[in-house]
Amino acid sequence: MVTPAQAPAVVTEPTAGSTRRRRGLTGNLLFFRNRKTVIGLVILGFFTVLALIGDLIAPYDPSLPSEVGLQPPSADHWLGTTLLGQDILSQILVGTRGVLFVGLLAGLLAAVLSVLVGVTAGFLGGIGDEGLSLLSNIFLVIPALPLIIIVAGLLPDAGGLTVALIIALTGWAWGARVLRAQTLSLRRRDFIEAARANGESTWRIIVFEILPNLTAVIASGFIGTVIFAILSEITLAFMGVTNISEWNWGTILFWAQSNQALALGAWWWFVPAGLCIAAVGTALTLINFGIDEFVNPRLRTTGKNAKILRARRIRARVGFTPVYRGTGKEQS
Amino acid sequence: MTGEPVLEIRNLSVEYGYDADAVRVLRDVNLTLHAGEVLGLAGESGCGKSTLAYAATRLLPPPGIITGGEVVFTSTRDDRRYDLLTATDDELRATRWEDTAIVFQGAMNSLNPVYRIGRQLTDAISAHRPEQSARQRRDRAAELLDMVGIPADRLRSYPHQLSGGMRQRVMIAMALALEPQLVIMDEPTTALDVVMQRQILQQLADLRTRLGFSVVFITHDVSLLIELADRIAVMYAGEIVEDATASQMYRTPRHPYTDGLLHSFPPLHGPRQELGGIPGAPPDLMSLPRGCTFAPRCRVALDRCRDERPALTATAFADREPHRRVACFQHEREAAAIPPSLTVM
């Protein structure tokens, strides 16, 4: 169709200097102009700071019992205390590091593994593809959580690193399959054939031609694995499988559960940790939306336009072009 | 002029983009299509030909937006008359294909590769005529294929088993399935070789005579239009600059741009001659010149052309050519620019 091709052609034409500079700026900062991304980054940034300095700013030793016993939030203990009189705010602050460390490390490792296996399989084809697909299919059916429980049982002092490694090892296969499928589809497209025809090396084709087209899939795989890893780690801690003297949000929930916080009406014991988990999950999902809109050039203006469209009550749809008579734009 | 107006486009304006940087791609376009007429839309790439056709049918994809005007469809069979721009989604859905059908630019790729073409033809019919029996639909599909010169046993073929020209003809058949009053063809023959192009156009002309629908034919091939179209509208930078019958436009182009277009393809007869072409490049729609949009490339531009924008009005010879319109201050100038080789043919 001529119409979609026309619009970009018009946009790329040289314009007056001031317009172009404005465009360049918005182009670079577009990722941060998206409100979803900004909210997500702010939340994640907040927790990252807590992860870094949490144990320095924690007002109390999170494990130290005191005589105050179970107390609701007060000026001394902002988020209240446990049955043993431990400060819950300190537990959350100290516990943030473990949660984010395991989540991000596992997500990163799984993303690297899935890219290596998935893209290679998709690009190679033939026997290499068969072998790597078999490998990822095997890993796909290994249940992560029971495996971690068994390993954690074997290694009594399994820490965050072990948990992260196991989650990464069991969690990469799904991403690899998606990437393989996408690579298979990309491999035969005209621009790849053109790159082959003008003599680009295989590595260059993979790294410069194929990978940028997979960014959205890789990013969503990464974010998905991070969320999965955080939830797994918290689940393990909550079940008491991992070391319960190492603080993370799951440990708090474990103690709250085993001391029947709900029956005692001690909501402050489990609600903050639950909200923190929800907040991190939300932040990662929002960032994922932002990445999606950013890496796909076709979606880039979506976020920018959404606000205007909402304000003017226009619904931009394919097949039913909106009619808006109120722009009042002068005939230039 | 043939018959009553079928489609009247009045002051249609279209922009791409929603913010302050929006590009105004159509500026107050006026165009009337009469019953049974073949109207050619010609112009360079990016001048708004397709945009005009898609905007008039509300099919323009985002970020296109219609910012003004009206598009009135008048049925010649009953007394329905409605403005497409104010129609609701359901109304649009009901009238599409019934009243206006479209053959898309890449029509060859408009067929779904996993269904037989018979199924795809009957689907189009059943969506609008649910009361018909399967047998009626199949008969109609066979009749349609026959109409475009494809044997009816091809109904059982998959799209990949047909050649490009055949697929294109299937799409034309599909467009005619519900006997629409208006068929919009967006460069339907661009992807085909000239032999196939000729065959299809010949068939199209025959079908038009038989069924009496109107056609909007979009192409940048002016020579094709001169043969095929009753009337031609030449577009430049989002505006119609000349609107005349094919023979008038061919013999005496009144707008210098039309003149340039006519000089940019070689005549098949007559002595060898240098092709003129049009110097310069299409204007940037983001920053159009103040006066006539064509002035920077125009051979005969005056100072006035750079300051004022000429409106699309009747020519100075309105008594001789009543329906002709042109947007040029100098259209009265002697049209001696046409070489004899072109006018003789």
From TrEMBL, chain A:
Gene3D superfamilies: MetI-like. It comes from the Bacteria. It is a multi-pass membrane protein. One of its GO terms (cellular component) is plasma membrane. Coiled coil: none annotated. GO terms for molecular function: dipeptide transmembrane transporter activity. PROSITE patterns: ABC_TM1. InterPro entries: BP-dependent_transpt_permease, MetI-like, MetI-like_sf, OppC_N. Belongs to the binding-protein-dependent transport system permease family. It is found in: Cell membrane. It comes from Stackebrandtia albiflava. It holds the Pfam family BPD_transp_1. This is Peptide/nickel transport system permease protein. Residues 100-288 form the ABC transmembrane type-1 domain. Residues 1-21 are annotated as: Disordered. SUPFAM superfamilies: MetI-like. The chain crosses the membrane at residues 38-58, 99-127, 134-155, 161-179, 214-239, 267-291. Keywords: Cell membrane, Membrane, Transmembrane, Transmembrane helix, Transport.
UniProtKB/TrEMBL annotation, chain B:
Residues 9-262 form the ABC transporter domain. Gene3D superfamilies: P-loop containing nucleotide triphosphate hydrolases. PROSITE patterns: ABC_TRANSPORTER_1, ABC_TRANSPORTER_2. It is found in: Cell membrane. Its main location: membrane. GO terms for biological process: peptide transport. Belongs to the ABC transporter superfamily. Keywords: ATP-binding, Cell membrane, Membrane, Nucleotide-binding, Transport. It comes from the Bacteria. It comes from Stackebrandtia albiflava. It is a peripheral membrane protein. GO terms for molecular function: ATP binding; ATP hydrolysis activity. Pfam families: ABC_tran, oligo_HPY. SUPFAM superfamilies: P-loop containing nucleoside triphosphate hydrolases. This is Peptide/nickel transport system ATP-binding protein. The lineage of its organism: Bacteria, Bacillati, Actinomycetota, Actinomycetes, Glycomycetales. One of its GO terms (cellular component) is plasma membrane.
